[in-house]
Amino acid sequence: MKNESRLMWLSGNIIPVEDAKVNVLSPTSQFGLNVFEGLRGYWSEKDKQLYIFKLEEHCERLLKSIKMVRFECDYTVDFLKNAILDVVKANNFLEDIAIRQTVFVDGFGNWAATGPVDMFIAPIAKGRQLIDKDGISCCISSWERISDKCLPPKIKMGANYMNSRLGQMEAHRNGYDSTIFLNNAGKVSEGPGACLFIVRDGKLITPTITSSILESITRTTVIDIARNNLNLVVEEREIDRTELYIADEVFMCGSAVEILPVLSVDKMPVGSGKKGLITQNIEQCYFDILRRDIIVNDSWLTPVY
Ligand code: PMP
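That is the input. Now the predicted structure with 4'-deoxy-4'-aminopyridoxal-5'-phosphate docked in place:
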């Protein structure tokens, strides 16, 4: 299917993407006044079924973002879930997909407006994120990660991504694939669109949820897999910048990047400079679960058809 002819959900209707329009004077257009989710759906050839990963968790997080940003609307988890399932079904996807679900402020108000609130849901065919190498190079950003004291990273809002943009653009200008932000306490927080794990002495370590990070659904999944499937010790604690230099392994994780090895930080190789064994095991287990080769928890994968 051509991307232009796919169907999306807007204001309760399923319509072609090219017919979905938003008012240029709306607060979402002018000030990035929106909250959103990025979900993934994985096609199982074995089951001839498309499964949405952690649908309920994404809808719950969206409602929390709506609450924190004080939008006036009465969406429920069931409404959000059904809207996603309806529009994915309407597209008849028989392949892996990514879904953008955005709740935004329409109308003619300013950045303090709380409504009128509307939503769009745009699914798109998207295979596994493949890179032509084993992993990526990162620098430490000269930009500080936004914090709960100014622009809470816990709210998944469009405007937060201007901080991600500054860091990512700086990294590209300087020849790195991506960047790692430090928070206002100078500790490691996250990447521009993904959370971060390191491995030290066989232990998996990740910044706490109060380290200026998004409460990532993949981060929770990785912790779960590490503890319950791989019998690893997982610590949620502050991470120093220099720990990235001496870690045995570093990887990012997120719905979009899935499991993404970081092979160097500030031009210093991480461990052997190759994808590490624990990262490989986590990646393998993550995809075994997504493809239903291992069934851990039925509620993680919602069938579309
Ligand atoms: N941090 C940021 C800043 C992100 O944009 C994302 C992607 N949504 C993540 C972390 C990972 O979150 P999740 O695992 O829920 O996709």
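The helical segments are 27-31, 55-68, 77-91, 161-173, 217-228, 241-246, 277-290.
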